[in-house]
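dumping this here so i dont lose it
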């Protein structure tokens, strides 16, 4: 298991994992976003030859992170699934039933369009647009906000699949997925490797952690 980065933030201990998730130590919650389970199957249905091992690798990575951190809760900030049900999603439901004691929470994203019955079968507690667990709020899209009175002003989100461009000698540059922490919100990297990256332009006061191979590198 690759080493995680310990980040003390808002008096809480967050372990940033190179597997693109965060373990919130005080609450024993594993936080991740944008798994897009079933996406490769959705593409194959459309005649696009996407290898199924993409889906299997993502699911194996999730299982490894659950085994390593042993969270009481797995919290997904949107886009757990990619589209309507297919064989890959059915496989995930079977996998989920092998861990009945582990609580799964989903803050729905724009791709989470399964029927309520599917979420119930998977024993997933679903929230419509936000979830408040003090001192943080969780949404899928940072355009949404916690609307509860007295809600935390700091929000965790996903959706945009943030990436940071790093330059090397000779002006070579590469984009890497990253964790972005601004003054009022954080954006998690996409947990799935089968997504693109949206280049971010951080300000000098932001905290950026790039995921380079199996390491976390603090950029600023």
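and the seq i came up w/
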């Amino acid at each position: 298991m690759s080493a995680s980065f310990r980040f003390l933030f808002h008096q809480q201990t967050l372990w940033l994992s190179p597997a693109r998730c965060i373990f919130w130590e005080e609450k024993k919650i594993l936080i991740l976003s944008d798994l897009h389970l079933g996406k490769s199957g959705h593409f194959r249905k459309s005649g696009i030859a996407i290898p199924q091992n993409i889906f299997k690798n993502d699911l194996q990575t999730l299982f490894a992170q659950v085994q390593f951190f042993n969270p009481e809760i797995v919290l997904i900030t949107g886009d757990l699934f990619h589209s309507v049900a297919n064989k890959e999603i059915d496989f995930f439901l079977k996998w989920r039933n092998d861990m009945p004691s582990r609580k799964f929470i989903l803050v729905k994203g724009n791709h989470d369009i399964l029927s309520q019955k599917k979420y119930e079968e998977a024993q997933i507690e679903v929230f419509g647009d936000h979830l408040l667990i003090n001192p943080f709020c969780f949404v899928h899209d940072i355009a949404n906000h916690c609307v509860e009175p007295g809600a935390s002003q700091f929000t965790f989100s996903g959706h945009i699949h943030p990436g940071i461009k790093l330059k090397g000698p000779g002006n070579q540059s590469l984009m890497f997925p990253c964790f972005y922490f601004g003054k009022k919100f954080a954006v998690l990297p996409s947990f799935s490797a089968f997504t693109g990256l949206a280049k971010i332009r951080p300000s000098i006061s932001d905290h950026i952690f790039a995921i380079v191979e199996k390491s976390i590198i603090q950029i600023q």
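The domain at 5-218 is CATH 3.60.21 (Purple Acid Phosphatase; chain A, domain 2).
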